[in-house]
Design a protein that fits this description.
single chain; Isopropylmalate Dehydrogenase; ten-stranded mixed β-sheet; two-stranded antiparallel ribbon; 20% strand; binds NADP nicotinamide-adenine-dinucleotide phosphate; binds magnesium ion
């Protein structure tokens, strides 16, 4: 079979533990036999981050900005225990954080659905994509305990020395105090990413905050979105027949639960953190959640939403058979290759990506799945649990059939 050609290299970011093992297997079994793969390779595995003093992550992010499309394997975010385990000289920052900051991007998460795994919410028929603003608010807050009686004030000193001062509270007893901030520029980037992603995927966009209570802070988010929509995106939305819809977060929660799915729900940082866990759990499994980082100027980084699946890796190291679900990582590859194909005008590459996803879904629908899904699956299907390699080989068989059809 003639291999499918590529023009521009994909930025390939390798990672850690079980997902690093999956990465190699997916490439060997499902990609390299079919695609004349061109990548610029960056090893974001923890040993290489340590060796390069994390320069490799910064370089990978720069390459993502240069070429536009990257595919990333899950990576370890070091904590104290990892510093000991890998004998690190420093607790290196989360690679995802570094890449997100470099791209000024928004993360979109969507579940992969199959008919035999029913969402906990019975009305959901299509995926709900969560767009989380990954900057500021409580994640960059300043806070402390108030020791006792006294006055708390919010003070801003302008560059010209002008002071804005407001009393927060006259404390009569001990308590807690917190300040949060965000920037118009970051909110605007978030809004651009959301509108563009809605257009690219032809889905409605919902946005919700608590603007009735937060009359300056959340109201700013609401107004920036509204203004940008009217000025830049309304015509394209109308042409595609999709809508932009703002509502109060309480109302949004009720509507989401009653909906059929099939839209993007944009949320502030904290709301997005919490709601994405709620939505992904209700859809079934973390192993089936895809994730893509989109910058306001249209750069993409595709990955799985889950981590490096450490517990499976330790079993793998002991020589035990593992049944780790590769679906989200496969969809990271297909998403990245499809986007590369679209940007470089390579219909054969787009077609390959579509068929790789179709073959993966067909394998699951035929009842061949990894252990994690068997327990969630409708028993009527009589699912068979297989190890990771056999699962990938079953996909390959179906992919070959689709490609030669
Ligand atoms: P995790 O790797 O997502 O795994 C948590 C548990 O979920 C697993 O132990 C496994 O459950 C199940 N699971 C997740 N993905 C699966 C898959 N593909 N197939 C089958 N089961 C799957 O999260 P974690 O254990 O909290 O974190 C491990 C490491 O990943 C950490 O070092 C963390 O820093 C890193 N991490 C990286 C990213 C990223 O790069 N984007 C994201 C999150 C975490 P069972 O063991 O019960 O089978
Ligand atoms: Mg969370």
């Amino acid at each position: 079979m003639l291999k499918i050609e590529m023009k521009t290299p994909l930025v390939e970011m390798d990672g850690d533990e079980m997902t690093r093992v999956l990465w190699r297997m997916i490439k060997d079994i499902l990609i390299l036999p079919f695609v004349d793969l061109k990548t610029e390779y960056y090893d974001l595995g923890l040993p290489e981050r340590e060796r390069t003093k994390d320069k490799v992550t910064v370089d990978a992010a720069a390459a993502n900005k240069k070429y536009g499309v990257a595919v990333k394997c899950a990576t370890i975010t070091p904590n104290k225990q990892r510093v000991e385990e890998y004998q690190l000289t420093e607790m290196w920052k989360s690679p995802n954080g570094t890449i997100r900051a470099a791209l000024d991007g928004t993360v979109f998460r969507a579940p992969i659905l199959i008919p035999s795994v029913k969402p906990a919410v019975r009305t959901w028929e299509k995926p709900i994509t969560i767009a989380r603003h990954a900057y500021g608010d409580v994640y960059r807050a300043t806070e402390y305990r108030v020791p006792g009686e006294g006055k708390a004030e919010l003070l801003f000193t302008g560059k010209d020395g002008q002071e804005y001062r407001q009393t927060v509270y006259d404390f009569e007893c001990p308590g807690v105090l917190q300040s949060q901030y965000n920037k118009d520029s970051s909110i605007l980037s978030f809004a651009h990413s959301c509108f563009r992603f809605a257009i690219a995927t032809k889905q409605d966009l919902w946005f919700s905050t608590k603007d009735t209570i937060s009359k300056q802070y959340d109201q700013t988010f609401k107004l920036i979105f509204e203004d940008l929509y009217e000025k830049e995106y309304k015509a394209q939305f109308e042409a595609l027949g999709i809508t932009y819809f703002y509502t109060l977060i309480d109302d949004a929660v009720a509507r989401v639960i009653r909906s059929k799915g099939g839209f993007i729900w944009a949320l502030k940082n904290y709301d997005g953190d919490v709601m994405s866990d709620m939505v992904s759990t209700a859809f079934g499994s973390l192993a089936m959640m895809t994730s893509v980082l989109v910058s306001p100027d249209g750069k993409y980084e595709y990955e799985a939403a889950h981590g490096t699946v450490t517990r499976h890796y330790y079993r793998y190291l002991k020589g035990e058979e593992t049944s780790t679900n590769p679906m989200a990582t496969i969809f990271a590859w297909s998403g990245a290759l499809r986007k590369r194909g679209e940007l470089d005008n390579l219909p054969a590459l787009v077609d390959y990506a579509d068929k790789l996803e179709a073959a993966s879904l067909k394998t699951l629908n035929d009842g061949i799945m990894t252990k994690d899904l068997v327990s969630l699956c409708d028993p009527e299907l009589h699912p068979v649990s297989v190890n990771t390699e056999d699962f990938l080989l079953a996909i390959k068989e179906r992919l070959c059939a689709l490609l030669s059809a």
